[in-house]
Prior knowledge:
alpha/beta
Amino acid sequence: MTKIIPAILTNNPLDLQxxxxxxxxxxxxxxxxxxxxxxxxxxxxxxxxLKLYKNFNFELHLMVECPQDYLQKxxxxxxxxxxxxxxxxxxIKRLINKIKQRDIKVGLAINPDTKVKEIxxxxxxxxxxxxxxVNPGFAGSKFQNKALEKVRYLKSQGIKVEVDGGIxxxxxxxxxxxxxxRLAIGTGLFNSKDIKTRFNKxxxxxx
Length: 207
């Protein structure tokens, strides 16, 4: 079954609170975008705020230059997966090992302009790849179809794939058809007045 993961990109604690409240009862897993103002221009909420929301598990998507600096800030109890970018300044092998030592799932994210085969050396040591369908750091951008080829290639290598960015009711089926196992959806979910109905419509399109 394809999992729909609500994705929250915000720098406002009140906005985070509102969005978390809207998805209560729909899912137990939420993706939180963490931005440092360097890797992408925007900045986001602080990780410490997530401790306020004990009924959820979180996937952290770290759009930051030095993801290794964030590892000590997280709790295994709440963090299901730690996703960092291939394009960051991290020593990728070392960081993967450190995350695994915390018994947290490891995701490696790639930007739209990154050639997918560049991450081949790491596929055997991670849990999944997060394929960006949009340029990172800005909500509401249009999905780039070149992401679909990356999904197909990664599935041919036997790796789980999550797609993030620009997913909506119009394109979700083709993304699923390419092989996506998980779909992180922000604007395509939260721009609905009736979020429960939208969530179920997205879910029904792929399951």
